[in-house]
Write a structure and sequence with these properties.
By secondary structure, this protein is an alpha+beta fold. The chain has five helices and five strands. It has helices spanning 2-28, 49-52, 61-84, 106-119, 151-169; strands at residues 91-95, 101-105, 123-133, 136-145, 177-183. The strands form two sheets. Strands 3-4-5 form a three-stranded mixed β-sheet, with helices on one face. A hairpin with a 2-residue loop joins strand 3 (123-133) and strand 4.
């Protein structure tokens, strides 16, 4: 989700900057702008003295400007933190037993865990994401279970089979997991 929001925001900001920059460049090169355009010629500035001081006397002007800038700064900081924070674990350190270690791709382990969880009886769909440190990974599992499945049984099968197999095969001391279960939407059965 975050990747999609990031790409959409970057595309919108990039498009606005290209259009505005191209329009100002075109006017600067001598293209005749439309009458409603804010920039009218080579020697014209984008915001003149009259336009900048137009609302200065109004009591609502500065609080509105400061609030809008504060919101923009907070959104930019949130976006920066969200982009810089890596949620997914890219690799897992596997103890090989000889004092050395091997690196296992995190997506490979996620794929195997997802496949095993999907194969469990009563699981319609599974999604696994590894987080944490490469020496101590943690799993976030989302299971979409069929209506007839007992959630406790589904959770027990997941921990006893898929998570235990992944933990043992990667040589991990433990593999803590946060599991979220959701039921498949279905129509009510008819009784005749």
């Amino acid at each position: 989700m975050l990747r999609t929001v990031n790409r959409v925001l970057l595309a919108i900001i990039g498009l606005v900057l290209v259009v505005l920059g191209g329009a100002v460049l075109a006017v600067g090169l001598g293209v005749d702008p439309p009458s409603w355009w804010i920039h009218h010629g080579k020697n014209d500035v984008l915001l003149g003295d009259a336009e900048r001081a137009r609302w200065q006397g109004a009591g609502w002007w500065w609080p509105t400007v400061l609030a809008a800038l504060a919101v923009l700064v907070l959104l930019a900081l949130w976006w920066l933190v969200a982009v810089l924070r890596r949620r997914r674990l890219s690799e897992v350190l596997v103890d090989t037993g000889d004092g050395e270690g091997a690196l296992l791709r995190g997506q490979a382990l996620e794929g195997v865990l997802t496949g095993e969880a999907d194969a469990l009886d009563g699981v319609a769909r599974a999604h696994v994401q590894l987080t944490g440190r490469r020496s101590a990974p943690e799993a976030r599992v989302r299971l979409l279970v069929e209506p007839h499945v007992d959630p406790g049984d589904a959770l027990h099968r997941l921990t006893a089979q898929a998570l235990a197999h992944a933990r043992d095969s990667a040589g991990l001391a433990s593999l803590p997991a946060e599991v979220r279960l959701r039921g498949v939407k279905h129509r009510a059965g008819r009784v005749s």
